[in-house]
Amino acid sequence: MNNSDSNEQQRLAALAALHIMDTPSEQAFDDLTALAARWLDTPIALISLIDSQRQWFKSRVGLNTSETPKEMAFCAHAIRQPALMEVADATLDARFAGNPLVTGDPGIRFYAGMPIASPQGTLIGTLCVIDQRPRTLNDQQRDTLQRLARLVEYQLQLRHTLLTSLEEAHELAHQQALNRRLLDSLKAGVVACADDGTLTLFNSTAQQWHGTNMLNLPPEEWARSYDLYAADGRTPLTTDDIPLVRAWQGKPVENVEICIACADQPLRHVLCSGGLLYPEQGGPGAAIVVMHDISEIRHASNMKSHFLATVSHELRTPLTAITGAVGLLRSGATDPRSAAGERLLGIAQENSQRLNELINDLLDMEKLEAGKVELHVEPLALRAAVVQAMESNRPYAERFQVHWYIPDGLSDLTVIADRRRLQQVLTNYLSNAAKFSHAGGAIRIAWQPQGDSVKVSVVDQGIGIAAEQQPLLFNKFSQLDTTDKRQRGGTGLGLAICKELIERMGGQVGVQSKVDKGSCFWFTLPRAASENRPEQGNTPSP
Amino acid sequence: MTGILKRIMHIEDDPSIQEVARVALEVVGGFEVRSCDSGTEGLAAVADFSPQLVLLDVMMPGMDGPQTLTELRKLSCMQGVPIVFMTAKAQTQEVAAYRDLGAAGVIIKPFDPMTLSDQIREIWEHKHA
């Protein structure tokens, strides 16, 4: 590409950058052509822009057409140099004498065109005046044309700047909207403030957690208004401890835990990190803090701590009895051969067994919860299983002076269950019933079909359980396991283990009870598919 | 309440621990001991037994140790009677909480039956120093 070609490419690029070709007329430009025609007393005045193929008129007075081919354009000659081009009589100018615009309509004789430049300085067109009679301009008129051409250039520049600004504003708005969307899509809460401490941002998550959008309040009122607490969930946060305040002050904020309280939401533990938006300026200044909800982690951690504390206590209780009893015997404070000594030995032995049972239950519970217990389910005759449980737990019945029985006329049913684990559940239910019963009491074990299941009930007439405690019964370490002195010896996990086992075998557990009226502890198990015997189960009731 | 410590009420729901503590306090310590299975039973018995010191388990079903202490303090016959908690749950902050409730002392389980009486005497003497 030679120099003139590359110049032309530059010129065309500058013209294209103005985004002006083929746009509607604009008052500012029309005013200038009107003034040119009036002040220079010409019938025709044009703002002409030259592209690669044509000249196109952004503004025109006295001419019907909006463009002509470039080869006909007087202005294409004019823009070859920056000075005013004047043609007194086109018919006498070899360049234009044969031009269709001279020989035909509009019959140009006189032409004066002042080149106009783009903001980059390339000549893109002209402000020109045309007459159909030969003439010349005087100096004042030439000056006028030049000044008007400069005004056209100013107008082009203004227009370009405005368009660019509008584009940038649009892009900015789009970017801001995108940023906002990004912030609101975050699961983390984001809050920010300006230099003066005014809150500038609560993203959607922060609004939800605080139950409100940001309020126009000074930092001293944030802790109270947004209900903020220290990690313990109880101590109200001081202003200086609020993570955003610290960030605003230029202090480091990394993994700081606080709590947010909000009506209708559980207390929320959040981990905060943040800092100044412009750290190079130092604080106090605009700052931002990101908060991650760690409530579940904290809850799980608390539950684990609580569980460990409870287990430790449960283990220490029989240990206390053992160490105490053995200590007394070894010291000689009590003669092992005396009645008191015998009792102490019994205590040591009993509590050792209790400790062992507790540890076994703990391990059992852990295996069940981890899904590591393998159950071998098979069809089992219920009557035989119940009878076996009654027999193997006879010492319990004797100890608590109760007797258990199966009602007459109860037909046998077949359940699908793990043989050993069914015994475990029956044993637990029978031993509980014995502990809850009064001396001499009767405990009834019965069963009945219930759709695809069989419901087995163990009913006692003992002390019963208060309504508000019943929902907690099958929880781990339920206090209810230790309501009565005689129930000591339970691990607090028995019913929780029963629940896990029965549910894993496809059944459910439950209890019905009234204080002083007794209890009915029940469980269901899937019934074996093939059942040919007629059913005549009694309906047990507490 | 001054003088020598003689009568101790022990409120503890676990029968094994109750038995061991009773032997430790009676045989080793030479105290007269009244054992109660629950806070309720203890509250009913204080007027009659007039303990000089109450040894109180913390974790009990129904009315727990702290609740029992609160109720005991309401009784005129219990004014000035030191109440000592006995518990397996005794982390630092818990012990501080027990003292804030008004406990004269805290004995940690498992306890040494041979030194239990000494520990109690020490608490008694400190109270009357």
What's this model, at a glance?
The complex is a heterodimer of chains A (542) and B (129). Chain A is α+β, with helices and mostly antiparallel strands and 542 residues long.
Structure description:
The complex is a heterodimer of chains A (542) and B (129). Chain A is an alpha+beta fold and 542 residues long. Chain A folds into four domains: 3-163, GAF domain (Beta-Lactamase), CATH 3.30.450.40; 189-293, Beta-Lactamase; 302-369, Helix Hairpins (Orthogonal Bundle), CATH 1.10.287.130; 377-526, Heat Shock Protein 90, CATH 3.30.565.10. Chain A is built from 14 helices and 19 strands. The model of chain A is unreliable at 480-488 and 532-542 (pLDDT under 50). Helices cover 40% and strands 23% of the residues of chain A. Chain B has 129 residues and is of the alpha/beta class. Chain B has one domain: Rossmann fold. In chain B, helix 2 packs parallel to helix 3. Chain B is globular, with a radius of gyration of 13 Å. Chain B starts with 6 loop residues before the first strand and ends with a helix. The interface between A and B is medium-sized, with 30 and 25 residues.
Question: Helix and strand layout, with pairings?
Answer:
The complex is a heterodimer of chains A (542) and B (129).
Chain A: H1 3-17, H2 27-39, E1 44-50, E2 54-61, E3 67-69, H3 74-78, E4 85-87, H4 100-103, E5 110-117, E6 123-131, H5 139-185, E7 189-193, E8 199-202, H6 204-210, H7 222-225, E9 228-230, H8 243-248, E10 253-262, E11 265-276, E12 287-293, H9 295-331, H10 339-369, E13 377-381, H11 382-392, H12 394-400, E14 403-405, E15 414-418, H13 419-436, E16 442-450, E17 453-460, H14 494-504, E18 509-514, E19 518-526
Chain B: E1 7-11, H1 15-28, E2 32-36, H2 39-49, E3 53-57, H3 65-73, E4 83-87, H4 92-101, E5 105-108, H5 116-127
Parallel strand pairs in B: 1-2, 1-3, 3-4, 4-5
Helix pairs in contact in B: 2-3
